[in-house]
UniProtKB/TrEMBL annotation:
PANTHER family: NODULATION PROTEIN J. This is Transport permease protein. It is found in: Cell membrane; Membrane. InterPro entries: ABC2_TM, ABC2_TM_bact-type, ABC_2_transport, Nod_factor_ABC_transporter. It comes from the Bacteria. It comes from Virgisporangium ochraceum. One of its GO terms (molecular function) is ABC-type transporter activity. GO terms for biological process: response to antibiotic. Keywords: Antibiotic resistance, Cell membrane, Membrane, Transmembrane, Transmembrane helix, Transport. One of its GO terms (cellular component) is ATP-binding cassette (ABC) transporter complex.
């Protein structure tokens, strides 16, 4: 744990010295939120008075999917510069190197999420729920970040180029567009609706929407948690396999 803490501090110093990382991660979801609320929002019927009430959960997931690409980038850079080999020559815990990058991803994405929520509040987002629903939202977003971060570790360790290390995140960023993140799925053509209703983003979005708007979450929360845990476990196993091969 001490070794992980030291290496985590190293990764966070890199971000603090290059704040454009968080700015880049935040600016695209922020622009999307402004565009959809103020340009398209008047034409979209979601049953809410202010479209940002419906849109915010999907925007948060897009921000996280965008942010984890930097985890792959940082890992790829460490591998290519020979830092992994250097660290392994030292008497430190082998798992500390990976967990430091994972913790950095959790913290940096949390900062982006907080910024987007504050902007959404300025745009009219309101939630009257208590502390427990907000804690549940925080936990789900953290679990989603953890799952995608371990997914990002795999290309970070195995990619042959910097573009290959970060490009895997593009499908994840666009996945919310084919879900209930922007419009209800019942407005979609049947083939698209079937896909949208059976992919992980829809269950996550509807769980977050229910928690933030004080509605019963039903079975959506268990489906969302199942997706997150399943992705995290599978990604972790493949990431550790790639890590052993790389070292």
């Amino acid at each position: 744990m001490r070794h992980t803490g030291i290496l985590f501090g190293r990764s966070m110093r890199h971000i603090l010295r290059s704040p454009d990382t968080i700015i880049t991660v935040t600016i695209t979801p922020l622009v999307l939120m402004l565009l959809f609320v103020y340009v398209f929002g008047g034409a979209i019927r979601t049953g809410t008075d202010n479209y940002v009430q419906y849109l915010l959960p999907g925007i948060l997931l897009i921000a996280i999917a965008s942010g984890i690409s930097y985890t792959a980038f940082r890992l790829f850079t460490d591998v290519q510069q020979g830092l992994f080999t250097r660290f392994h020559s030292m008497p430190i815990g082998r798992s500390a190197i990976l967990w430091a990058h994972v913790l950095t991803s959790l913290v940096s994405n949390a900062v982006s999420v907080v910024i987007l929520i504050l902007v959404a509040v300025a745009m009219g987002f309101r939630s009257s729920v208590g502390v427990l629903p907000w804690l549940a939202v925080t936990g789900i977003l953290a679990l989603f970040t953890l799952a995608l971060t371990w997914l990002a570790v795999i290309p970070g360790l195995t990619a042959k180029s910097i573009d290959g290390a970060s490009a895997f995140a593009y499908p994840l960023i666009f996945l919310p567009f084919i879900s209930s993140a922007f419009v209800p799925t019942d407005t979609m053509p049947t083939p698209v609706r079937v896909f949208a209703e059976n992919q992980p983003v829809t269950s996550l979005v509807e769980t977050l929407q229910s928690l933030l708007n004080d509605r019963p979450v039903g079975s959506d929360i268990w489906v969302a948690l199942g997706w997150c845990v399943g992705i995290a476990v599978v990604a972790y196993l493949f990431a550790m396999r790639a890590y052993r091969r790389a070292t």
